[in-house]
Amino acid sequence: MQIKENNIHDFHINNILKKLDQKDLDAILVANFNNIYYLSGYLSTSFAFLVLKENPIIFVSEMDLENAKNNSSIDIVKYESFEKMVEYFKEEEIRNLAIESDLTANVYDKFKDFNLTISDVISTERMIKSDGEIKKIMKASDIAHKSLIELDVRAKQEKAALEWECAYELAYLMRKNGASAESFETIFASGLVSSLPHSTPRHHILDTPVLVDYGCKFEGYCSDTTRTFIYTEKQEEISSIVLEAHDKAIDAIKAGAKACEVDKVARDIITEYGYGDNFIHSTGHSLGLDIHENPSISLKDKTVLENNMVLTVEPGIYLEGEFGIRIEDMVLVDKKAKLIGNLPQIL
Amino acid sequence: MQIKENNIHDFHINNILKKLDQKDLDAILVANFNNIYYLSGYLSTSFAFLVLKENPIIFVSEMDLENAKNNSSIDIVKYESFEKMVEYFKEEEIRNLAIESDLTANVYDKFKDFNLTISDVISTERMIKSDGEIKKIMKASDIAHKSLIELDVRAKQEKAALEWECAYELAYLMRKNGASAESFETIFASGLVSSLPHSTPRHHILDTPVLVDYGCKFEGYCSDTTRTFIYTEKQEEISSIVLEAHDKAIDAIKAGAKACEVDKVARDIITEYGYGDNFIHSTGHSLGLDIHENPSISLKDKTVLENNMVLTVEPGIYLEGEFGIRIEDMVLVDKKAKLIGNLPQIL
C-alpha cells in the first residue's frame, strides 16, 4: 500500500464508506479518539463525535475547536447537545446508523430511535497497516529499545534502585530519544510481583527477576516490548521455556495462518513442560494507534493473518509466590513474520 | 460520615442496594474500574465485571485473579465468556438489570435480553465523599502543591528548560513525595499554546506565560490544580480577571447552591470584562477516584451542592494567537466552601 501521507485520511475514509455501503448503512457515528485521529488527523482531548458519510463532519467541544481546526482534514462544527446532533442526523436523512462497539451506553441511548448496528468496520480497517504506519511503529520500537539499553537494568539492580524510579527514568529516556509519550504505564516488576502480569511499579528496591514491559508512542503509534532480566538457575530454566514458545510462535506467524493457531503453538510448548496452567493470558495482540488492537493471538480468535498486520508475541509463565517470566516482541506479518528491531531477547 | 475504612465497601454497597431496591432493580452490572474499586478495593488492570446484588461477585480475567483475590472484599470468580455470565444472571433470576452509562455497546448488546435501565446510582453515591476519601484528596493535593514549589517554574523559565522536561520532573517529584501516579498527563503549556486548554507538553523552550495544570493520585484519589506563571502587563491584567472570577465562584459555593449558579458567577464576571467568548469551558467539576466526576460546574448542571462534595474551580480566558490564563483550586463544600491546600494563586 503506497499511499501518500497527505491522502491517507481520504484513503481510509473511502475504504470505510465502501464497506458501509455494502452493508446498507447510511453513516457511522465515531466517538473513539484514535478512530477519529485515524480518519481526520485530529486527536481529541475531551470528547468528539465524527459522523462518517459522504460529507463527513466532526462535532467538537468548544474548548478543542482551535486544536481541531488546526489539525483535522474533516470539517469541524461545535458540539452543542445530543438533541442538535439527532436533528442533524434527521436532516441528513440518516436512518441506518452504525455505531462502534465501544460507544458508551448513554450515547447509544440518545440515538436509539435510529436503526442501530454495532460495527467493527474501522477496527477491521485498522488491522492492516500502511507503510507509513509501519514506519512509525518501527521508529517507536527503535526509540524504546535504545532507551532500555541506555537505562541498563542490571546496573540499576546492583545499585539497589527502586522499581518506580526505573520506570520513570525509562519513560524520561524514551521521551528524550524522540517519543511523544509512553504507550502505557511501564511495568517494572521485580521478585514476587513479577508473577502479576500487570504489576504497578512500587517503592521497592529491585529484587530478581526484573520484568520490564514497556513501550512508547511515535506520532501516535505504539511499541510494546517485554524483557525479563534473570539471575538464578530456576529463572533461567523457566526463561528458556518461554523463549522457546516465543520463537516457535513467531515461526508460526505468516499470512494465511489463523491467530488461534499461533496461540496454540506457544501454549502447547509451555504445556508440554508442565506449565500450561501458569500461562494465564493470550499469546499476543495487534497494536498501532492503540496498544491493544484486533486481532488478538488467543485460542478464541479465528482471524486469518494478513500481510502488514503488526502483532506482539508475548508468552509468559507465572509462578505465584515465586516469580514470573515474559518475553515479548513485535512482528510484522508477511510470508514469514519479520521481527521488529533487534533487541536481544536475553539481556 | 464516620465510617471505618475496613467497613467502607460494605457501607457503599448497602447504600447502592437500597437505591436499586427502591427502583425495583434486581442488580447492577458494573464494568467501570474505579466503581469496582470503590465497591470492593480491587482495581482491575485488564477487564472485570462486578454484579452488585445481595451477594455480589466479580468476574475477573484469568491474568488478574491473584491480584483480585489479594485485594477484593467481594468474592471473585474467573471470567470465561459473556454466555456464561448471562447463564449466571438467569440462574440468579435477575430480570431488571441496571447498567452504567459508560458500559460499552458490545457489552450492552450481550445483555439486551434483560430489562435494561441505565443508572447513575454509583456515580451519584460517589458525589459525596467520606472523611477517608477527603483525607486522601487532601493528601494528594499536599503532595502536588509541595512538588510544584520544589520544581520552581520561574527558575526553569530562566534556565530555558523544555516543556516536556518540566512536566516529567513534576511527575517525578510528585511520585518521590508519595503519590502513586499523575492524576492525568500534566499540561505544561507556554506562550501561544497556553490558549489551548489541553495542550500537550512540547519539545519547546518555556515561553511566557507558563500554564501548569497538574495533579497526582494518593491511594487512588486525585488532586487537580492549575497555576499560570505570568510575566507581562497584559498577562497580569487577564490574570486578575480570572482570579476575581475564581474567588467569587468559590464564595458562591455552599451546600444548597446549584452547580449552574456557581458557573454563572464566574462567567458573568469574565463576560463583564468583555472576555465571555474566551471562557470556553465550564467553571469546574467534581473529582475523586476519577479526575472528572459529577457534578460539573456548568450552565447545564442543576445539581444542588451538598456537604462533602469536592469540586474544582478553574475559570480561564483564552486569547487565540496570544496566550491563555487559567487558575484552578479544589474546594470542599460545606456551609462555606473550604479551599483545599494553601498554594498561592499567583506564584
Essential attributes:
347 residues, six-stranded mixed β-sheet, alpha+beta, Pept_M24 (chains A, B), Creatine Amidinohydrolase, Chain A, domain 1, metal-binding (chains A, B), three-stranded antiparallel β-sheet, metal ion binding (chains A, B), Creatine Amidinohydrolase, Peptidase_M24B_aminopep-P_CS (chains A, B), 36% helix, 2 domains, homodimer
Low-confidence stretches of chain A: none
- The gross shape of chain A turns out to be globular
Global Rg of chain A: 22 Å
What's the overall average pLDDT of chain A, rounded?
A: 96
The ordered string of helix (H) and strand (E) elements of chain A is HEHEEHEHEHEHHHHEEEEEEHHEEEEEEE
Oligomerization? homodimer
- Continuous helix count of chain A: 11
What proportion strand of chain A? 15-25%
Major sheet of chain A: 6 strands, mixed
According to CATH, the homologous superfamily of the largest domain in chain A is: Creatinase/methionine aminopeptidase superfamily
Instruction: Give the N-to-C terminal Cα separation of chain A.
Output: 36 Å
Most extensive chain-chain interface: A-B, 37 and 37 residues
How many E strands of chain A? Answer: 19
> What is the CATH C-level name of the largest domain in chain A?
Alpha Beta
| Coarse structural class of chain A | alpha+beta
Strand order of the largest sheet of chain A: 4-3-2-1-5-6
The tally of domains of chain A stands at 2
How does CATH name the architecture of the largest domain in chain A? Alpha-Beta Complex
Domain Creatinase N-terminal (chains A, B): 13-113
Pfam families (chains A, B): Creatinase_N (PF01321), Peptidase_M24 (PF00557)
Domain Peptidase M24 (chains A, B): 135-334
GO molecular function, one term (chains A, B): aminopeptidase activity
